[in-house]
Amino acid sequence: MSATLETVDTAPRYYQTFHPDTHAVRAELEQGLCAPNAWVPPKFLYDPLGSCLFGAITQLPEYYPTRTEQAIMARYADEIAQRVGGVGALIDLGAGDCVKAERLFGRLCPRQYVPVDISTEYLRGAVARLHAGYPGLDIVALGQDFSHTLSLPEDVLDDGRLFFYPGSSIGNWSPEQALGMLRQVREACGERGGSLLIGVDRVKDERTLVRAYDDALQVTAAFNRNLLLHLNRVLRADFALADWRHLACFDAARSRVEMHLQANAPVTVNWPGHSREFSAGETIHTECSYKYEPTDFAALLDAAGFNDIAHWTDAQGWFSVFHARA
Ligand code: AVJ
C-alpha cells in the first residue's frame, strides 16, 4: 500500500487596477510639483528599484522599526494567534516582498493570501516566489493604489478576514487621512469576524528618529533620490540627481518625520508641457512618517469603528502592534 500525496496547485490570480502610465497619475504629480511648497505623494518612492532600496533600509542598523516590529510579533506570536483565531483571507496592505506576511503563515494558517501593492511589477515577482514555496496556497494579488480606494474582488473570502498593515505604513498618512483609511479597512472587514493587525511607530527621542531616516550608509538618501529617476520616467522629466540632496527632519509639534529633496542650486526642471523653477535650498516634500503614542492610536482605531483593541510593544517602548476587531 502506498500513500498518495496530493498537492493542489492553484495559480495566483492578479487584478491590476493601478497603471502608472496614465494621465491621472501624471496630473497628480504635476499638481504637487507645481504647488508653492512642492510635494510628491510617498507612493512614488516605490518603483522596482525603490522597493528594493526600501528592503535594504529595513536591514540598516539605524532603521529600528522593521526589526522591532518583528521582535514584538515573534515574542507575542502565541497571544496574537490566539486572539486572531481562524483566518479566511489574509489581506496584506502594501505587501512589498510579502516576507512579513509569510512569517504569519505558520501560525495563522490563512485559507487565502491577498497581497495588495502599488508596485505591481515587484509584487508579481514576490508572488511568483511565494507561489513556488506554497503551491497549495490560494493567492489573489492586487496591483492597487489603495490610497484612493480599497476594493476587493469577489473571490476574496469574506469570513474571518484579517487585514495586515505592518511597518507603520499608516504613518505616511496624517491622522485625519489615517482615520479615513482605517474606516475603509473597517468597512472592508465585513460582518463575519474581520479584524486588523497593524504596526505603528511610537514617538521617541529626535536623534533616534532622524537617524532612522538619515542613515550613515545613505541608503535612505538613495531611496529618496531614486524618486527623481522614477519621475523622469513617468513624467519624461529631466531631474538631475546631482542637483538634489536628501533631507530628513522631525517636526515634534506634528509628531512626524519628514523627508525632502532639497535643490543644491537654482534649477529648472522640464517635462512635456511644463517647467518648474526651484531656488537654491527649496525642497520637494516626499514623505511624512507620523509617530503615535499608543493611547492616541487606540483612540483612532476606536473612532474608525474598531473595538476590542489589544496592544503589544517592546521593552524600549519604540514600536506598537495593535489587533482590533471590526
Ligand atoms: C514604509 C512608510 C513605513 O515611514 O518608515 C523608510 C518608509 N521612508 N525610510 C517609514 C521609509 C524612509 C517607511 N514606511
TrEMBL record:
For this UniProt record, the keywords arranged alphabetically read as follows: Methyltransferase, Transferase
Under Enzyme Commission nomenclature, its number is 2.1.1.44
Q: Name one Pfam family in it.
A: Methyltransf_33
GO biological process annotations for this chain's record?
methylation
Q: Which residues form the Histidine-specific methyltransferase SAM-dependent domain?
A: 26-325
The answer to keyword GTP-binding applying to this record is no
The entry lists its GO molecular-function terms as: L-histidine N(alpha)-methyltransferase activity
**InterPro entries from the xrefs?**
EgtD, EgtD_Methyltrsf_superfamily, MeTrfase_dom, MeTrfase_EgtD-like, SAM-dependent_MTases_sf
Task: Spell out the Gene3D superfamilies in the cross-references.
Answer: Vaccinia Virus protein VP39 (3.40.50.150)
PANTHER family noted in UniProt:
ERGOTHIONEINE BIOSYNTHESIS PROTEIN 1 (PTHR43397:SF1)
Kindly provide the name given to this protein in its UniProt entry. Answer: L-histidine N(Alpha)-methyltransferase
Q: Which gene encodes it?
A: egtD
